[in-house]
Write a structure and sequence with these properties.
single chain, mainly alpha, Growth Hormone, Chain: A, 19 helices, about 0% strand
Amino acid sequence: MQKEVKKSWALFLGIGTMMIAHGLQMQIMGIRSVLEEFSVLTTGIFMSGYYVGYFVGSKTTPNLVQKVGHIRVFAAFASLASLSALVAVAYVNPIMWTLSRFITGISLVSCYVVCESWLNDRATNKNRGQLLSAYMIVLYFGLALGMLLLNFSEPKAYEPFILVSVLLSLALVPILLTKRPAPKFKKIGTISVKELYEISPLGTISSFATGVIHAAFFSLISVYATKAGFTLLETSILLFIATIAGVVGQGPIGYFSDLYDRRKVIVITTFAGSVLALLSILSSSDPLQNTYYMSEFAFKKILFFLFVGAYTSLCLPLFSLNLAHTNDFVPKEKFVAAGGGLQLIFGIGAISGPIICSIFMGWFGLNGFFIFLILIHAFIGFFGLHRMRVRKTAENPDSTFTPMPATITPMGLELDPDTPENIERNLSQENKQT
């Protein structure tokens, strides 16, 4: 594993640097929107621009990679992502910020496709899962570090946006200097939404709702924290805890989902998420008085940090849970196609998440942020209980829980050691090496 990670240092360094920039840009724009007195709905709309771009890019990038190659695509879109940060600081208005987020979404998904297909080409059956784990760690720790960089300068200054642009430009360097040739690109098909729903109604509905939850939380949590009176340091610490806790939660949740009916794990996890979101409300405010306790660092604020961290440790693994549950009902050779379909559904949900959540914040004040999350989690939970009554438990020995970043593309899904893709190619590579 260490040998392959060393060989892939350029990919990990490049995508890790890009994630640092992405984590900083996403949250600095949320905080800055509050300082610029944008309405919460306006913030939700321009934050959704990222997910629209992500959706468009995931459909168009594979064809582009086939035509011009991996390195050119990565270089072009890393440059575009760098440009989007400069657009955001040069033109501080909702229309240009929506465009900026749209460009960022297209650019990042294009770079994901390049990196994941490249990693998959280098993977063998022995190290496929380990490379996927290393990739996920790089992604999430990069995001977390980027959120800590909120303390680099004041949100109203131009320096944070310049830093984002610099980091995105630096992400180009290791990829462009790599000696190893780029892999041949292979397009991967997906199962249609209708077919996926017929295969696994819970997996399909839960994936859509999970996209709504993830996008709403990470797009608007900095808006919530700023309006609630957090200092910049406290906001960055909260975001760091939320991101890292989501990674830590993947292990134990995956362990239990492989032992018991996955639907029970989904239901328990999502209802527990609702409870933790409610506790976050109670620890941060007096709902009856509509007052908040965030003006100074106190015991209730520490509780709030803990509840939010516990919440993300349950909600971030939901994408992997949905994928594993759906794979319980499909043959092994369709794992990647099913995963690609679920990722598409996740993306559609993500587009609507920030907008609908911002409407709730307009109706109920800041507590609308967590009220919205409570309702979506409860919806998943009750639908899961319904499906448990109408369908028996399915056991597919080929399907196991594999920790996945929610941003995974069909190229990255092939890194799942359960998939049979590329087995002959990997075996031939191993034979040549021996």
